[in-house]
Amino acid sequence: MIINFARIDDRLIHGQVTTVWVKEAKAERIIICNDAIYQDDLRKTLLKQAAPPGIKVNVVNIDKAVSVYNNPKYQQDTVFYLFTNPADVLAIIEKGVPIKSINIGGMAYREGKTQITKAVSLDKNDVDAFNQLNDLNIKLDLRVVYSDPSIDFIKKINEIDIA
């Protein structure tokens, strides 16, 4: 499997993803990796329907994502991984999927999270996972849209006290 792009965006497949990021990814398949969404048949159906024409979409749990990555049948497939959170990215990397860079595009504000940019809000678990990804030398690329300048994500996290 050839990993062309990986992104955290808790809205998953939406306008920016279908019109910009899919083109930048140059991948034939979007793989959404999340255990909870994998269990939600309605959400899986809606996500597959939101895919741009010509792009296959699979919704898998973390273990299946690892299994599919290691299946020789998919060795030449080009993929665009989509995640809702950094803990899932960390889990898949720790299980052997070699993601080298992750684009952070959107993590919505919810109670208990601290807003660090217009599009990204984090809690302590998110910060811990991002710090572990940084320790593994995974490039953390904070950009909502392709034309945005890349921001030093760890510096941004360290500017804000998240308890």
Write the layout of secondary structure elements.
Blueprint: E1 2-9, H1 15-25, E2 29-33, H2 35-38, H3 41-49, E3 56-60, H4 62-70, E4 78-83, H5 86-94, E5 101-106, E6 114-115, E7 121-122, H6 124-135, E8 139-142, E9 151-152, H7 153-158
Parallel strand pairs: 1-4, 1-5, 2-3, 2-4, 5-8
Antiparallel strand pairs: 6-7, 8-9
Description:
A hairpin with a 5-residue loop joins strand 6 (114-115) and strand 7. The chain starts with a strand and ends in a 5-residue tail after the last helix. The protein has seven helices and nine strands; from the N terminus they run βαβααβαβαβββαββα. It is α/β, with parallel strands linked by helices and 163 residues long. Helix 5 packs parallel to helix 6. The chain is globular and about 45 Å long. The longest helix is centred in the last third of the chain and has 12 residues, at 124-135. The protein has helices at residues 15-25, 35-38, 41-49, 62-70, 86-94, 124-135, 153-158, and strands at residues 2-9, 29-33, 56-60, 78-83, 101-106, 114-115, 121-122, 139-142, 151-152. The mean pLDDT is 93. The strands form two sheets. Strands 3-2-4-1-5-8-9 form a seven-stranded mixed β-sheet, sandwiched between helices.
